[in-house]
UniProtKB/TrEMBL annotation:
Name of the protein this chain belongs to: Cell shape-determining protein
An example Gene Ontology CC term for this record: plasma membrane
Organism of provenance: Gloeobacter kilaueensis (strain ATCC BAA-2537 / CCAP 1431/1 / ULC 316 / JS1)
Keyword Membrane appears in the UniProt entry: yes
Topology with respect to the bilayer: Multi-pass membrane protein
GO biological process annotation, one example: regulation of cell shape
Length: 175
């Protein structure tokens, strides 16, 4: 059964506002949101939460959009869009019945893996650009990827719960 037009509009506005909140959270310096100077990757958490019950195409488009929006408010070179789109598509392609029970531990593990993947995409782009020594990029990447993965995976379940509640009807109708 298709939800009413008004329900679809409310869901779309809620999804848009939650994405904006994830982007704005990048600028909120709250104690406990960082490990060794590396803060939570809120857009990545949002993309993982969004992609769990979506098609790979829908997730990939959302990943690109979120990445471009993040590029617009931070630095655009290298782009965040590649890593977020790849993380979104891979999250959506997970065999939900076999690997995802949609519990907090699964979301945390997926976020951990996708944070490492996203940071690796950034490191590859820095390597291709050639402005920084490759050895320096990859030694720094180890700390950034691990720190981002740890702190993001700790916060992911807390973000997932309200988003899952909000999207439950919308995602059920798209499946």
């Amino acid at each position: 059964m298709q939800p009413s037009l008004s329900r679809q509009i409310v869901n779309g506005i809620g999804t848009f506002l939650s994405a904006i909140c994830a982007l704005l959270a990048l600028f909120a310096p709250v104690p406990g949101w960082a490990i060794a100077g590396i803060s939570v990757d809120w857009p990545l958490i949002w993309i993982v939460c969004f992609s769990i019950r979506r098609t790979p195409l829908m997730a990939g488009v959302a990943g690109l959009a979120m990445g471009w929006a993040q590029d617009g408010i931070t630095m655009a070179r290298p782009t965040h869009a590649l890593g977020l789109a790849l993380a979104a598509v891979l999250t959506a392609r997970l065999e939900k019945q076999r690997f995802i029970q949609e519990d907090f531990i699964s979301v945390a593990l997926i976020t951990f893996a996708m944070a490492v993947l996203s940071e690796t995409c950034m490191a590859l782009q820095y390597s291709i650009m050639g402005h920084i020594a490759i050895a320096e990029i990859w030694s720094h990447h180890q700390w950034v990827a691990l720190g981002s993965a740890l702190i993001s995976s700790l916060w992911a379940p807390l973000v997932y719960l309200p988003l899952r509640w909000w999207w439950r009807d919308q995602a059920d109708n798209l499946s």
